[in-house]
Design brief:
CATH superfamily of the largest domain: Aldehyde Dehydrogenase, Chain A, domain 2
CATH topology of the largest domain: Aldehyde Dehydrogenase, Chain A, domain 2
Strand content: 15-25%
Number of helices: 10
Number of domains: 2
Shape: globular
Strand order of the largest sheet: 9-8-10-7-6-11-12
Helix content: 25-40%
CATH class of the largest domain: Alpha Beta
Order of helices and strands: EEHEHEHEHEHEHEHEHEHEHEEEE
Distance between the termini: 26 Å
CATH architecture of the largest domain: 3-Layer(aba) Sandwich
Number of strands: 15
Length: about 300
């Protein structure tokens, strides 16, 4: 039988839409929720939870199924993370520093993703016009979100053909390019990339670019430097696409599409509670189904185990 997780603690920053999304999803899955938003939207969050409570008072759902911690004190968060007798799971939404703080201090299980270091690999057998559109969209359409591309990988066989026009288009879009030695050989005025760049979630119009020796090196790079969030290959080769899907260890893996689609709404799940990059219980965009667990129901008429 599908059952609710219980009481869910949501710790998040900035956007007050999370208040409504989290409350609605948790209630729909049968959970209670304790919300702790950021200082930027504390007044909006208080008003929204008051509206939700007023609506609940007219139903059979307990009013206190949705609660808000009405202080922005960090001590309140630390106290919340120790309430393992009362809260069943914590879901943090925000920047890497918030999520690390929650994970390091919580004695309650945490469903998390630290960051979105997403890649697009342009294979030697890619449709280069398609690749240009996908890469530009993945980086520029909305650079400050976790499913935006942060590193572009290009097969060395087509790098000299693809990169000059691609980098020119990125620059027209205001993107700063940081490249490895081979990229800088092809486009000399590119800023050098450092080792730290390959791990970096810029959340800005900055892109690291690397030339790789084929599919295997691209897969290795993604699995080593990436955050297991969303990664894409552009190719016309079915076998390479299948290998990429099987061997890239990420929550969402794309063939010939932008990484920008990793989102509960885009995946047809409606609102989402967050995107998990871990492997236990939930992975990828999380909606109502991921806010439940299961239990076994056994109806007997006297059976005993011999």
């Amino acid at each position: 039988m599908v059952v609710p997780l219980g009481v869910i603690g949501i710790i998040y920053e900035s956007r007050p839409n999370v208040t409504v999304d989290a409350a609605g999803l948790c209630l729909k899955a049968g959970n209670a929720v304790i919300l702790r938003g950021g200082s930027e939207a504390i007044n909006s969050n208080c008003v929204l939870v008051d509206i939700i409570s007023s609506a609940l008072s007219k139903t059979k759902v307990p009013v206190f199924s949705v609660q808000l911690i009405r202080t922005t004190s960090r001590e309140a968060v630390k106290e919340m993370l120790r309430l393992d007798d009362y809260i069943d799971v914590i879901i943090p939404r925000g920047g890497e520093s918030l999520i690390r703080t929650v994970t390091e201090n919580s004695i309650i299980p945490v469903i998390k993703h630290y960051k979105g270091v997403c890649h697009v690999f342009v294979d030697a057998e890619a449709d280069l016009a398609m690749a240009e559109k996908i890469c530009f969209n993945a980086k520029v359409q909305r650079p400050g979100v976790c499913n935006a591309m942060e590193t572009l990988l290009v097969d060395k066989k087509i790098a000299s053909t693809f990169l000059p026009a691609m980098i020119r288009k990125f620059r027209e879009g205001g993107v700063e390019i940081r490249g490895d030695e081979e990229v800088r050989r092809i486009v000399p005025d590119v800023k050098p990339a450092t080792e730290e760049d390959w791990f970096c979630e810029y959340l800005d119009l900055i892109l690291s670019v690397k030339v790789v020796d084929g599919l295997d090196e691209a897969i290795w790079h993604i699995n080593f430097y990436g955050s297991h969030h969303s990664d894409a290959i552009v190719t016309k080769n079915y076998s390479k696409a299948k290998k990429f899907l099987q061997e890239v260890d990420s929550a969402a893996v794309y063939v010939n599409a932008s990484t920008r689609f990793t989102d509960g709404g885009e995946f047809g799940m409606g609102a989402e509670i967050g995107i998990s990059t871990q492997k236990l219980h939930a992975r990828g965009p999380m909606s109502v189904g991921e806010l439940t667990s299961r239990k076994f129901i056994i109806l007997g008429d006297g059976q005993i185990r011999e």
